[in-house]
């Protein structure tokens, strides 16, 4: 499995299986056995990186599935539930520190996560009990106490990351997880370039948006042509387009045949011209699925 190097020297497997979106079950306590089985299948097929979050309600399922292999063979991500951008949903826990400690003990049943993120920058002291900078300091303490190996952010704009950097943090964010695909190459202005210049790895959620939600669209014919040229599925072409830009895709499938395919992307390379062409065609359409102004709520 290809890896990326993070700014703290840690390595991160270059593609992740997401335990959110289609698996989202916040507010229900019962274990989803189909998710446990699918996560085990994904691990057996070679996924070593699982993307979770408090808000997904699936930390218990991840905890069950990861018993399958030694802990050090896996890379587990979780995220502090910042709630929605309208401040109507909040974490079940007092603060980000407590959230991870309790989820590790009661759900993940493992002593640490490899990566812990603030799920969004929508953090207000009056609502969350901590300001954005104090939330970040909670994450730093999680590293100091051994509960998280690496820390980062998600859905952060340039100015949100700058606010953390301006606070003179002990630890810099290592990752910014954002919505990224051919139809959303800038979740917010300049964010990809800024992260790459500051040695912050960009993780792409919804990398297959153009296939699942974007059809018909301007990249369809070209991606189909590349699919024929490389004898790879359209999903594989889009995951490769993401990876070759130094961006880590987080995807998922509920279906066995797709899960294996997602990992069979390390034996071919798109040319620079092909990467550029997908990017240019993609700019003709905008598709944003998450964290829109109108979105506000999770459900
Ligand atoms: N930080 C954040 O705020 C967010 C993080 N995430 C993370 O990213 C993960 C992945 O996000 P997601 O948007 O689901 O990622 P993708 O864009 O990779 O979409 C995956 C979905 O696409 C479907 N799909 C795959 N190929 C095709 C195709 N050829 N035609 C039609 N449908 C297809 C799959 O369906 P099927 O099951 O039928 O194969 C699956 O449900 C989440 O689980 C979560 O971990 C997601 C959103 C926000
Ligand atoms: O997986 C996710 N589904 C979501 C829906 C709304 C906001 C964030 C998310 C996720 O992270």
Automatic annotation (TrEMBL):
One GO biological process term: cellular response to oxidative stress
Active site: 56 (proton donor)
GO molecular function list: 2-dehydropantolactone reductase (A-specific) activity; aldose reductase (NADPH) activity; alpha-keto amide reductase activity; alpha-ketoester reductase (NADPH) activity; oxidoreductase activity, acting on NAD(P)H as acceptor
Sites annotated Lowers pKa of active site Tyr: 79
A Pfam cross-reference name: Aldo_ket_red
Signal peptide: none
Record-listed E.C. numbers: 1.1.1.358
Entries under InterPro entries matching the protein: AKR, AKR3C2/3, Aldo/ket_reductase_CS, NAD(P)_OxRdtase_dom_sf, NADP_OxRdtase_dom
UniProt entry tagged with the keyword NADP: yes
Keyword annotations: NADP, Oxidoreductase
Residues that bind substrate: 119
Catalyzed chemical reaction(s): isatin + NADPH + H(+) = 3-hydroxyindolin-2-one + NADP(+); (R)-pantolactone + NADP(+) = 2-dehydropantolactone + NADPH + H(+)
Domain of life of the native organism: Eukaryota
Domain NADP-dependent oxidoreductase: 20-281
Similarity-based family: Belongs to the aldo/keto reductase family.
Name used for this protein in its record: 2-dehydropantolactone reductase
Organism: Hyphopichia burtonii NRRL Y-1933
